[in-house]
Fold these 4 entries.
Entry 1:
Amino acid sequence: MKEFFIKEIGEININKSKKAKRLSIRIANDGKVLVVIPVWIPYKLALSFAQKEKSWILKHKEKSLKNLERQKINDKGLDYNTLKARAKVYLPSRLAYLSKKHGLEYRKLSLRNQKTLWGSCSAKNNISLNIKLMDLPDHLIDYVILHELTHTVQKNHGPAFWRTLEQYSPGARTLAKELRSYRITGVNTNQETN
């Protein structure tokens, strides 16, 4: 692995890999940039590739650094009470509003400080929402709420679930992908909702 410096991007690491079949860029949790290339590609070409992808790198580097900062705050417990207070005010009213708007009924709501799930819906239609939702943009908070409300009528993640969710949250699969780019206290989970 070799280190290089590109103006505006900063330090990047280039790793030649026998397994790599193409050039790829990864952004680590701490914002470090890694370019992985096949062994036959020269470093100069990798640097040129990184330069072309500068806007993508900067966007994802910033997101990683924000997630890291959020993790530090949550790990220290500095923002927990504020987060909980905001969640208690906003999430119940937003859930009630979206439930009524779409005719999706739930039994009760629990607010939790979870490490792996943004939300869940039980077999009895009890919904649990993570207070850390308050760190997300509004459109993703709504997506998680609608995801869980959809589980009141579709209990699994089969095709019928996604068709139903799409009615309430257009572009649901894109939103699910966007949600996966956020972390809950430093834990990146592909099970963003249940």
Entry 2:
Amino acid sequence: MRLAAVAAVLALAAAGCAHSPPRNTGPELFAVIPGSAGHVGTIVVRANGSEQVLDQAYAGTRVSPDGRPEAARLSADEIQRDFGATLSALPGRPASFTLYFLEGRDELTPASRLEMEKVFAELKRRPAPDIVVIGHTDTVGNLSYNDKLSLARAERMRELMIGLGIAPERIQAAGRGKRELLVPTEDNVSEARNRRVEISVR
């Protein structure tokens, strides 16, 4: 038996996934597995003219090769026994971090240097992370200056991650200058919360 619809199986954000099983294949199992925080999503299985809504932890439906659905109740032990290897191979949930910089520089503030340790820990936890680093500035200076500064901030973070052993091709870095302010201000306003990088790890 094979586990169908991996995204639905996780049920971390599923909210109405539907699937009609193909004919002439082996049995398929659709199940709702609670997330690490206990969240339970919902999936809808449509087969052979019927519809089953699965919205309880470990609720399942087995669909036979001829399309007949049959309700199933699984245990956590059964899920782990049959699909533990598959589930452990799935990527973790995305993580986001915001780090702040000294004015006019690509150097982190002391508080953000400490926060960077959390970023490093998250990267080490993921065997093949996909990382996006977006640099930002406040509104002090002209557009060209801030474009260069925001990119320098993003590239500085990228270099630190490469130094940790992350493959360069897994890290995208870009600068947005003063176009996407976290705190809206007039031009030439020094606002510490706008001098930042946003790091997304998947």
Entry 3:
Amino acid sequence: MAVYEYEHLGPACSRGRVFEVVQSIHDQPLTVCPDCGGPVRRLISLVGIRTPKTNSELRDLGFTKLVKRDDGVYENVTARDGESRYMRRGQPETLPHLDKTISD
């Protein structure tokens, strides 16, 4: 079940100008208010998107963040236990352990 927002096209009723209705995704959109019978239209709701703000949040979500420090040298600012803090070109042992972060 999803929550949809509807707006009265005419005067608002006791539900208010904009109100929410829980419906199945398969249900047809309402065209009239269930309370007053006035015309309504379904609105496109805003979506809450949260992005990680710190390196530790990125690490906890399974991401690896590399910051370029020199030519061929990157700092792994999200390094986990056992990982090298710096990744150097030509040294595969300094690569992050992706098998620890990628799962099916």
Entry 4:
Amino acid sequence: MVNIMVQWILAASMAVLHPFFISVIEVSHNAKSATVEVSVRVFTDDLEKTLQKYTTAKIDLIQPKDRAFIDQQLNSYIGKTLRLKINGKLVIVKYLGYEIIKESIWSYFEIESIKAMNTLEVDCSLLYDFETNQVNIIHAKSKGLEKSYKLDYPQRMTSFGF
């Protein structure tokens, strides 16, 4: 019994000492609709703590008192920390909303009027203001090709060609 308790305490302390901070950004060209679909997956608690730095209002992504306020905060923060250039041009990313899936927040965005995505440049500093161990994984899909890249803090830039 004592042995099990010691193992549990050791495992719990290791998790506290060595947590991981990761987000996944998926950028996918939809040729049929001439759009680029973007999804951003972040751990809920990390995103709440980060957003809380920028407002005095309580940030609760799971049970928001004011969903419009939370949507505005998410759109603003992700808009500042994730910038995309498609075919050499900075694009306007339209916020669609978010949903909770298990322990993560999935935020959804769309870029309109993109007939072809030949190149994608990504400038991503998502959660770098929260944690210096942050890792952002970028998945990009276009023309039947899927490419991925891992950005480790403080690295912000990557690009893809299709």
